[in-house]
Amino acid sequence: MATGISAGSLGLSSFVLATEPIGPSKRGAVGMSTFYFFSGGIMLLSGLALLTPSWRQLCIVSSIPSLVYGILVVFFLEESPRWYLVQGRVNDAMKVLASIARWNGKFIPEDITVTIEKEEDDIEGSIQHEQEDLQGESVPKLQNSQVTHHQASGTIFDVFRVHPTRIRMFIMTFIWLFVAVVYYGVSLNVSNLGTNLYLSVLLNALAEMPAFVLTAICLEKYGRKRVLIFALLLGAVCCLLGSLVPEHEENGVSNYHLTLSVQDFVLSKTVNGSVMRLVCGMVAIFAMAGAYNLLYIYTAELFPTVVRNAALGFTSQAAQIGAIVAPMVVVLGKLHGSIPFASFSVVSFLGGLIVFKLPETLHRPLYETFEGLQRSERIRN
Question: Could you give all domains of the chain from N- to C-terminal order, each with its CATH number?
Fold first, then answer.
């Protein structure tokens, strides 16, 4: 339980921290690039599971890299400058921006104005480029500024209190639930295919890699909404095709024990059915991996900074519920092999339909407060 809580919090916080400093034009590509490591970890895990005889040993071996990385990376992490601004800590935000600029071989302009909307007040400061010695580093100093140090904050209850975010939260919660059911369900359904479990998990993880690349490209061209709809409908079609493949005659036959030669290249009917379902599952995983990871970007852009972490945390909990439901659907494959794929097809199709109710966020700014988001909604409507 402690591992699950820590892993879930780590993933959400890391994603928000990585994307908040990024501008709208590059946010999609940066957000999608963070997920290559997730699929890479699954591929490594399949190999470790094959080589490790005990699940206890597997837990120990897979935990060591995380421990070492966590100790090393803590010294290089910076807080989100956007969060600092929302809290009225403009000097701290400027220090982070100066550090980012220094890593990129740039510098902060001499005279800039930092403006951020508050629900009641505006933070607006005139930043003069003066130097101060702070632990041996030169950073811009805020002087003669008129900054309201009112701290803006929000909770998940505020999300449901405000009309635009309340509607978005209901819709996104169901979408996260549906996507998780299909994503984890198709991944776990390899146990019903009669193929080698380790190889199937490896291939499914490998199928996710091109999904990240194509999704990142399509995000900037077609927008978040249309790409998500396409991914969900593609997953629905692939799962539907998988459900239409006839069941193999001998349940339990595994490709792992099958030896093929050049002369014996023609596969049996049993293997053909399993391979066809595996291919349908891989394409479905391709679509759902793109949809799943796109949801992080889309959700982060739909909610203001003051509740962004809370909104992502709430919707991701719906995904965890989906991960719990998915194995129950997979077990139904023991009754008939078509049931899991057919169920995933319906769920994915429903998810694609309700996305139509969401607004597009392509090239739109990340709103800091509810007031800014509500003002934008009034203008848009």
Answer: 88-142 (no CATH), 155-253+265-380 (1.20.1250.20)
Which amino acid type is present at position 255?
Answer: N
Q: Give rounded-to-5 percent helix, strand, coil for the chain.
A: 70, 5, 25
Q: Smallest Cα–Cα separation from 86: which of 118, 54, 56?
A: 118
Global pTM reads: 0.67
Amino acid, single-letter form, for residue 141: K
Question: Which residue, among 128, 92, 90, 88, has the nearest Cα to 112 in the 3D structure?
Answer: 128
Q: pLDDT of 1-55, one tens digit each?
A: 677 666 666 766 777 777 777 776 777 677 767 777 777 888 888 888 888 878 8
Listed in sequence order, the residues at least 6 apart from 274 whose beta carbon sits closer than 8 Å to its beta carbon are 193, 194, 195, 248, 253, 255
Q: For residue 291, is pLDDT > 80? A: yes
Other beta carbons within 10 angstroms of residue 92's beta carbon come to 18
105 neighbors 137 (Cβ within 8 angstroms): no
**Two structure tokens written together for 240:** 């539907």
**Considering only CA atoms, which of 214, 371, 166, 190 is closest in space to residue 275?**
190
- ∠113-114-120 over CA atoms, to 5°? 125
Name, in order, each residue with C-beta under 8 angstroms of 329's C-beta and a sequence gap of 6 or more. Answer: 181, 185, 339, 340, 343, 344
Instruction: Summarize pLDDT for 328-366 with one digit per residue, the tens.
Output: 998 988 888 789 999 999 999 999 999 999 999 888 877
DSSP characters over 113-169: EEEEE-SSSEEEEEEEEEEEEETTEEEEEE-S-B---PPP---HHHHHHSHHHHHHH
